[in-house]
Amino acid sequence: MAAAIAVESLIRPEVRALSAYHVADAVGYVKLDAMENPYTWPEAMTAEWLERLRSLPLNRYPDPSPAGLKTLLRDSNGVPPGMDLLLGNGSDEIIQMLLMAVAGPGVKVLAPEPTFVMYRQIASTLGLEFVGVPLAADFSMDMPAMAAAIAEHKPALVFLAYPNNPTGNLFERADVEAIVALTPGLVVVDEAYAPFAEASFMEDLPRHGNLLVMRTLSKLGLAGLRLGFLAGPPSWLHELDKVRMPYNINVLTQATVEFALERLPVFEEQTALLRQERAALFQALQSMPGITPFPSRANFILFRCEGVAAGDVFDGIKRGGVLIKNSSSAGGALSGCLRVTVGKPEENRRFISALEQAISGR
Ligand code: PMP
């Protein structure tokens, strides 16, 4: 029998220091924790989709560069002519590809914080130094701090979530432009929440040599399929494509995304409903004593609890049958904060009533 190998002798310390990305068990709860679209498809559309699946050749590898799918993505996302696309198994995989392509001794990656945790998490697994620059108290960009950090650390990559997760706000356009101009490396504007933001840097791509725009279909309503993409100048995407696994977008995902994008109005209707619900949910939160919601351009709302511990409010909401996200456990700027995803009207009502009960201690 081979001798036991100590974990510490093989697994790098920076990996051992991490915690795996935690996903709460949502079984039995109204699920408002993960920024998913709560709506499913009309029955006739599902039947048509099943029909399309019948002819899929599952014995063959997927198309490594699906031209038809890319054309649909370009058209539905307003990708400017001359820009290329790189597809990922969710935008998480694109973040990983970007970081793998630049990783090396002394290379640094920078983002304002708090932000999407996977930028830091994946950078750490690859041994890259991650520089987090605190946002201002109102979650706007602290431009003097950002400019100083960029000058000091000369990052190879800067990630800007636009709108930001978990704060929900859009950074000032002029601040993003200034960061693109100041950064010696690439700036990735992560537009995961594009269907809810009504603002974008997509059409600005041709004006900048070091700007990339990343999107995902997850928030539109296809989170289960795992498809993200990066749009940018062909010279950069050509290099990034070398770290992509050849068959990273599986046959079922390719066929189903094509099918869905051919029926885009179904999803546009759903996201329009969610934007309306976001406004109603914001108002309901604003009218509650001890609760301060932050304005959001995404499909979730961050809110601060005052006079009562956020952890207790979170637990109380959960006892009421609704799962949201306890952002306060990250501490710092997010202390006292919880994040709720915008759901269907009846789900949002369940949440508001669970929150009322939680803060009144019943
Ligand atoms: N970027 C941001 C800002 C996000 O909030 C998320 C998901 N919560 C992602 C990227 C990842 O999206 P996906 O991997 O589902 O495409």
Automatic annotation (TrEMBL):
GO terms for molecular function: histidinol-phosphate transaminase activity; pyridoxal phosphate binding. GO terms for biological process: L-histidine biosynthetic process. CDD domains: AAT_like. Residues 31-355 form the Aminotransferase class I/classII large domain. It is an enzyme of class 2 (transferase). The keyword Amino-acid biosynthesis applies. InterPro entries: Aminotransferase_I/II_large (IPR004839), HisP_aminotrans (IPR005861). It catalyses: L-histidinol phosphate + 2-oxoglutarate = 3-(imidazol-4-yl)-2-oxopropyl phosphate + L-glutamate. Its EC number is 2.6.1.9. Its cofactor is pyridoxal 5'-phosphate. Belongs to the class-II pyridoxal-phosphate-dependent aminotransferase family. Histidinol-phosphate aminotransferase subfamily. Homodimer. This is Histidinol-phosphate aminotransferase. The lineage of its organism: Bacteria, Pseudomonadati, Pseudomonadota, Gammaproteobacteria, Methylococcales.
